[in-house]
Every structure is written in C-alpha cells, then in structure tokens.
Amino acid sequence: MERATRVGKNEGHCTKESLRKAALGVTVITALALAKPPLAEAESAGSNPSGRAKAAVGPVERTLPNGLTVIVEEDHRTPLVSLALRYRAGEANVPPPFARGTATVATALMVRATEHVPEGEYAKLLARAGASKMESWTSADAISFGVTLPAEQLALPLWLWSDQMAFFDKAVDDTALATARARFREQRRGTFAGSPLARIHRFAYEELYPVGHPYHDGADEAPEAVDAVTREGVLAYHERCLTPDRAILSIVGHVTTAEVFEQVGRYFGPIPRGTTPPLPVPEPVGLSNEIQIDLEANIKDATISVFWATPRLLTTDDAELDVVARLLAGQQTAYLWWALVDEKKVARTVRVRQMSGQSGSVFQVAVEAVSGVTAPQLLSAFDAAIDAVKMRHPTPNALRLATYELLVHRVHALDGAATKAYTYASYAGLVGTASYLLHDFERYDHIANDPVVDALARLIPRDRRVVLLVTPSASAPPGGERKGRRVILAARQ
Amino acid sequence: MRPHAFPLVVAATIGACAGPRNAPALREPTPIAATEVAPAPLETARGVIADAPFRHSPPTAGAVTPVPTAPVTVTRLRNGIPVIVAKQPSRFVALRIISASGAETTLQAEHIDCLTDVLRDDTKTRTFAQIHEELASFMMPEPLIERLTDGRMQLSAATLAEKASAGIDLLADILLHPSFNEQNFARRRNQFANFREQQIDDPVLVSEHVIRRALFGKQHPYGLENLAPREIRTFKVAEVAATHARLLNATQVAIVVAGGVSEPDVLPMLERAFGNLPRGPESRTVTVKPWDGPRIVVVDKPGSTLVRVASGFIGPSPRSSDFEATEVALGALADPAGRARTLVDEILAGSITSKTYSYPNASAMIWLMPVRPDAVGRTLRELDHLLVNLTEQGLSEEELSLARTRGAAAIAASFATASQAADEYALLWRMGLPVDDVAKAVARYSFLDLASVRSAGARWLDTRKMRVVLVGDWDAVRDPVTSLDWGPVEVHGRDGKVRIEGPIRASH
Questions:
Q1: How confident is the model at residue B178 (pLDDT cuts 50, 70, 90)?
Q2: Strands (DSSP E) found in B350-415
Q3: What's the pLDDT tens digit per position in B5-63?
Q4: CB pairs below 8 Å between A and B: how many?
Q5: A476 and A196 in contact (C-beta within 8 Å)?
Q6: Are B359 and B366 in contact (CB under 8 A)?
Q7: How far apart, in Å, are the Cα atoms of B109 and each of B116, B207, B221, B384?
Q8: Residue B24: what pLDDT?
C-alpha cells in the first residue's frame, strides 16, 4: 500500500499508468522471448523418433527428498544441453573461524579431483565428451558450476558434480591445497598489480557493512590472506554448505524431462541432506553519517567514488536504483554525465551502478576527473550536480527508455540455453522458484514516479554515504593506499 | 522506512500484478523419489552415502538424437550485396552488416573508430530520441558498430522476429544516412579521445595491440598503431564522412541474417533497405610478410609491479589446410592442465589466455599472460622450451584426441543462438570461406593426425618466429630479458620515444 501511495505523489510528471505501460512492454516481450519458438516445436515434432519432440513449455521444477532442487526445460533447437549447479553458499557462508577465500579454494579443489575422479580428469573428461563451456565461479553468496555439452553426455556432469557433493573430502590433500592456494594467491596478486584502484571496494565495504556482516570483509582481500585457508576450513565449508538441500541443478537443452529426473535421481538421490541450518539473512544496514576516506593510488588523474548501502537484490527499491543508475549515466539519459563531462567539463567519465547482492546491495558513483581537477574539487562539483539533478524530473519516456536499456540485453541473452540454465538456478536459489523470472521484470512496474528524487531522499542521501577521494601518487602501492578518514555528522550538513 | 524483507517484496510484487500478467503464486516444489538404493554404504564426513558401482567410472554416453537444421542460403540483392540467411527456431533475428575494408593506414583506422561513435547519433530523418524510441519499441539493444581487426566496420543488431522489417529499416537508416551534425560530431570526437586516453593506460589492451604490430609491422593494415588522443581531437567531420562513403558500397558490403525469419521473408526487407546502395571499387588483396623488427618489444611502465606478456606468431590463414592443426598445437601448449601446467602453477601471476585473430590471408595466434617482474626471464625460457619441445616431438595421442574433440565441440556450440550463428557466418564471409565450411571444419578436426599437427607446428610455431611484447617496468626486467640473448630489444619509453637496447647480435 505504501508503494501505491508513493507513486501517486507527483502525478504531474509521471503517472502510475504510464509507468505500467513502460514496464509492460518489457514483461510482455520477455514472456514472448521465454515462450517456445513455434518453429522449434514444429520442426522437432516431425523429425524426432525418440519422443523428444514434444517440448514442455517453460521450466519444470521438482525437489528430491534430500532437498536438491531440480529444474528442467526442454529446448530442442540444438543437440546440446546446458547445466548449471548453484550452491546457495559462497564466501559469506564460510563458517568461523575459517578464512575468507575458503569457498574459492574449495571450488578450485572440487574441479581438480574427487574420490572417483583422478586429478585433472574433471576437465579432461568433459573436454573429451565435447564440452564447449566449463565454468566455475565463487561469489559472496553462492558458488556455481556450469557446462554445455552434447545432450547424449548428460550423465557425465551429473556423475562429476555428485562426486563433488558426496565424495570430496578424501581427495583434499596438502599438495592439492597448496597448489590451489598458490594459484589463487597469484591471481589476486595479478588483479591488485593490474589495477591501481583494486582495493577501493574493500575500503568502502569495510565502512558500509559492520563487523560480522557477510560483506564487511568480503571484497578484494589481500593476496597473502589466501595463505590462511586451511584443509579443515575447506572441509568444514563443504560439509556445512555444499549439501543437496543448499543446491539447485538447472538443465536446459535437447533432453526429455523424464529422462533428466531419472538421471538426477540416480546420481544425487542417495546423497543425504545437510544437517546445519542456513545462516540467517542479515538485517539491512545503513550509515548514520557521511564518511570520507582519502586515498592515494598510482593513477593519472584524481577520481572519486561514492558508495551507499542499499536494499538487497530483487526488491523494488533495488529495481528503482537500477533505473536511477541509468538515468544518471545511461545511454539515453545521463543527468550526471551531462553535468560533469559535457557542461562543467571537470570529469572524463561518470559510471553509476547498483551492485545487487543477496545480503544487501551497494550503489556506486565513480567519477574520473580531467587533468588538473582535484578530488575535493570533483566532489564539490558532484554534489552541485546532484542538487541540480533533483530539479530534472525524468519524463515517462525517459523512464521507459532507462528501463528498456536496463533489461533489453537480459531479454536477448535468454535466447541461449546456458544463460537460461544459469538464470533459472539463480532465481530458484534466491526465491525458491525459477518461474520468478517474469516477476523480476515486473518489479520495474513499481518504481516511484520520480525515482531520482525519491532515491536521493530515501535510498542514497548525501549524509549516509562513503566517499573515497583518490589522489594520484606515483609511489602508491598497487591497489591504492588509505591515508585518512573523517566522519561528517549528518546534523552538520 | 519501508520493509525490505525479501519474501514480503516478492509477495507484494506478485500480488500487485493484475490482468494477463497475473502470475500464479510461488509453487511448492514436487518431491520426486530417488531411484537408487545404496548397495554398499560408505562412511564419509557427512554420514552414510551410497558408493554404488556406477560411481567408480565415468558414465557412457546415451544415444545421439540429431536435431534437424535448416539449410543456410546465400543470395544477392539486386545491387549485388550478398545476403546469408541462416534460419533458426528463435524469437529473435540477429543481423550483421559488414562494410568494406577501409583501414590501410593508422589515420584511416582511427577515422573508422570515430565514425562508429558518430553513427550512434541522429540520422537525416530521425533524431537521437526517435531512434531510441524505435529501438525500445522493437526490443532491440542499441546496435553495436565497431571496427574489426581486418579493417572492416560491422554493425551487429538483434530484433524480435515479428519486428524484423521495421528493425531493418531503422538499422539501414542508422548506418547509411547519418546526419554528421557538427555539434554532435564534436561531442562524440571528444568522447572517443577520452576513451583512447583510458585505453592507452590499460596494459592488457596495450600488450594485445602492440603484439599485432610486432608481428605485422606498424605500416601493415593488421598491425596499425593507434594515434595519440591529442590527434583525434583535430579530426574534421568531412574526413569521417568521407570514410563513411568509402566503407559503404554495394560491392563490398555483406549482410548476414540468423534466427526466426526465412529467406523469402527477409529478402524484400533487405532489398528495400539496402537495395539502392551504389556499387564501389573492388577490395584490395592484403599480402602478409613477417616484419623484421626486434623479437622483443617493451612498453615501459615505470613502477608497475606486474608485467603483461603477450607472445605470438603469424599463423596460417583460416583458408589454409594448416589452420586447424596450428590452432590445436597452440591450444595444447596453453593447456593449464597439460603442457602449460608448470607455467600456470609455478610461474605466472594468473592464467594464460590464448587468442586467434583471423584475417583473410593470415592469422595472429597470441598468448597473453600476467607475470611478476622477477619471473619474466623464467617465463620466456619456459615458452621457448615448450615450443622447441612441441616442434621436435609433436603432441601425444591423448592431447590430439582431446584437442580434436574440443575443436569440433567449439564449432558446434558456436551456432547455438541466432546471435552466435550470425557472428560465425559473418566471420566466414570476411575470411572468404563458403558457408558450408562449418561442416568441413568439423571434419577437418576429426581427420587431424599427429604428423599434420607436428608439421604445422614446425612451420608456424618455430620459436625463432615468436614475437614477445612486455608491458611493464623496463628497469625491473632489463637484466633477465637481455640475458636471454634474443637479440636487440625495442623499448617504448614513457616519453613516447622508441629506442633499441641490448645486443645487436641475435643468437637465433
């Protein structure tokens, strides 16, 4: 109800109806994109003697008795199948006292060897089976594995991944751990050395999230921190988090739904569910003051980065901030870019993004100065530009275009089975059903009629932010160095 | 403060949806039964798990069920523009519009890059806002217009199949009828120069760019060097307009369409949009010969704690029978679980990225690696060792088998979506290859044998032909690099000046 009241406040600029129309195009077309192309059914129906022809519409979801969520969508356009396995537990879920980086090292070890899969055979077996994409990645909230391969090889990744889930611990020895740690450490070192600003997210997240929050120290750890990852930590994380009841297996491709459920039951069915309850979702956080941090980095010109802790992934406010980011520095509308780059000519680039996370999101504005402009000068210009932006109420059309710009690539990406498999797994992991996809797009129906003004007042206020002022210094270490910190009390502004 | 609790928001969002978009409530997942009973319990950390016999060896593949594919057709518009249509079951239609090749000098290349930005503005009949209104209503992402490494300009776009006709009209207008408004041009030129300023500070991009120059020479169309941003700021709108006219003529333009539209349906649309484009000169053939510059080029970045290493060879043309064999050899060398294991596990500060740039008459086969300065000498010696080993001993049966499967699988997966298929057919056309080369390439991989890979490796991956680019602190790597005795080193100083250092005599 509150949402409806808020929408009605500024009817002069943008009506509820116009906003609904704006988003309607996106959601209807998304539905079209997700629907089976008529050609696929017609062509496959006439030529597939195996009975694979009749494709189910949309994803089918079931849960094994051990809690594993299984999603299947038949797609007979190519002879391939894409699989994604997502565990709802990433670096943020590593149990104390074990070190950050444990989940990443565990992921690397799982694709290195398990009890029935000798060292190095994971990648080789998949490659020999014709896998074209082999991926594994770790975030704060989840770890995922993905592969695309010929449909007749469906059982192979199921065998490999079920071995990772149930038969992991005996394959973890000191040599394997040392190799995985060393590789991870060097990768981090490469990231740090390759980017003079690699550590700025760490500085910001430490301020945005309190000690104990999963994101407090989750960003850009120092390379040496990897050395604290132990075998005990890896096994404890695996034992606690990588269980069938924390996992979602999503399969899209040239398969039959019944066949998939049978195979998944065979490989994953006997694995017992976990015994540890999931960690509670942390309460939303917010700063009570503005915090300014002075940094030095080996860069050519000054930059500023401004951060806010914002509502978590998939909320309506998260959608609103997505759109606000596009209005401030998008392709069609770019209030901040126009002000700082085109009009005042104090900045070279302006980047704005809402980085959505399961336990909280971060809204970031990064501005790079032109030569001769200092970081404090840039911040003054930025604040003045934001004040001016409050007067520029976006038209319904600007909102529509910002929403389109935000979502159009996501809609087109759903043409690919691998993207679909990963997307379904993500939604099932986040909200319990792959079918949430359409609702996700519908969030954009509920954006405030003047989202910039609303966001500036409510979600990204000036007195509740972290500002990093980065000054060029040729002697600064890789990643940047913190030189000072001050708190600006909200009441003084 | 509004509640942000996750389930509340989900429920509210679903509850707020009315009419045709009203979705069902979140479904309760339906349990299914496990099909296997544990025959032999095994104690593990998590409890009792079935260690069934099927777990002890990889499963065998199931039956292959082929998927019918529609034939790919090649036809021409009245003015001679070739049109490749690959019908696929998709709600989308992907288009690639490929221009003539027009970058034989650095200046021409930069004019094309500037043009790709200018083409994002208004046309003679549509404002910027109108263009984006239409793109949004057709659910089309903003078209990607870019200069390719072979000097052509390519427009990549996608639209809903039912909007293909209007979408093609819009794309033709964007591409063929830009307004070249002076004010917009100045803004785009400024953005482009700013972008270049950022690029020249990116060590990865610099290494990728300079390795191609080190292979082909900076005067060659495949090795052109970017201008300084300061010079970009002097570009005139007339120069860029002339480039536009030169690139878009019916003699050299080609169009690729893939996705949910058939040839009979799409040809009239393309005829209406592109059928009046006048013909132009025939394209020139570019010849390739290796540049005889120093084997090692250093771009000095004082203070860098990491060195970006790019090493590469001039490889065979995609039309050559050696192409797949050389790619397989290079791929095996970069395999982090195989020959490159020592390199990745013990030496590098990260992983190896291998890339192949394809040109009609050659290719550039490149490895990119991050290395700590103290490991640069060891890295280059290890690369040399790997190459000598390959050319002398060739691959093992296992490596070859793996590489063959990988190559064929990569081709199969490259046509999974309309957009991927459009990219692949556009590449075939640019390389002068027929559309049925896809099937032939799969066969070529399956026929590769140890002898052909070894001889191709010896021809193309001879260590003496390898060029190396190092982007990093020259003072920190001078000693290990010069002690390799690989001949003189070309050093690009921070001041922009180029000097030659090291011994004049080369050991190879």
A1: very high
A2: 353-359, 362-371
A3: 222 322 322 222 222 233 333 334 344 443 333 334 444 555 556 668 888 999 988 88
A4: 308
A5: yes
A6: no
A7: 11, 18, 9, 34
A8: 35
Is A153 within 8 Å of chain B by CB? yes
DSSP assignment, residue B157?
A: E
* pLDDT tens-digit readout, A358-391: 889 999 999 999 999 999 999 999 999 999 988 8
pLDDT in tens, A112-139: 999 999 988 998 899 889 898 789 989 8
DSSP A160-224: HHHHHHHS-GGG--HHHHHHHHHHHHHHHHHHHHH-TTTTHHHHHHHHHS-TTSTTTT-SS--GG
Which range is most confident: A280-289, B79-88, B286-295, B490-499?
B79-88
Q: Model ipTM?
A: 0.81
Q: How far off is chain B from A141, nearest CA to CA, in Å?
A: 15
Sign of CA dihedral B356, B357, B359, B364: negative
Distance CA B257, CA B280 (A): 23
Mean pLDDT, chain B, integer: 84
CA distance B325 to B450: 9
| Interchain CB contact of B446 with A (< 8 Å) | no
Answer yes or no: do B29 and A61 touch at CB < 8 A: yes
Tell whether A178 is within 8 A of chain B (Cβ).
Answer: no
Residues with Cβ < 8 Å from B460, sequence gap 6 or more? B313, B314, B315, B316, B322, B326, B329, B365
State the pLDDT at residue A221.
66
Which residues in chain A are contacts of B91 at CB distance < 8 A?
32-33, 35, 37, 415
Distance between CA atoms of residues A4 and B185, nearest Å: 44
Distance CA A385, CA A338 (A): 9
Rounded to whole angstroms, how far apart are CA atoms B486 and B474? 16
pLDDT tier at B227, thresholds 50, 70, 90? low
Residue of B29, B92, B419 with shortest CB distance to A63: B29
Q: Would you place residue B342 in the very low, low, confident or very high pLDDT band (cuts 50, 70, 90)?
A: confident
Q: What is the pLDDT of residue B169?
A: 97
User: B260 and A401: CB-CB below 8 Å?
Assistant: no
Distance CA A357, CA A362 (A): 8
- The C-alpha atoms of residue A413 and residue A403 are separated, in whole angstroms, by 16
A210 in contact with B, Cβ within 8 Å: no
SS3 content of chain B, % helix, strand, coil (to 5): 45, 20, 40
- pLDDT of A30: 54
Chain B residues within an 8 Å CB radius of A52: 65
State the Cα–Cα distance between residues A158 and B463, nearest whole angstrom.
42
Percent residues over pLDDT 70 in chain B: 89
Residue-wise pLDDT for B237-257, tens only, equals 999 999 999 999 999 899 999
Cβ-contact B332, B339 below 8 angstroms? yes
A348 CB within 8 Å of a chain B CB: yes
Structure tokens at A247: 């996992």
Those of residues 367-386 in A touching chain B at CB distance below 8 A are none
Structure tokens belonging to residue B369: 């690696």
Q: Check residues A302 and B302 and name the one with the higher pLDDT.
A: A302
Preferred mutation among B305, B369, B399, B411 to probe A, highest tally of A CBs within 10 A: B305
Residues in A touching B4 (Cβ below 8 Å): 284, 311-312, 315, 317
CA dist., res. A223 & res. A229, Å (int): 12
Angle CA A191–A194–A196, to nearest 5: 100
Residues 305-344 in A contacting B (C-alpha not used; CB under 8 Å): 311-312, 314-317, 331-332, 342
**Strand, coil or helix: B25:** coil
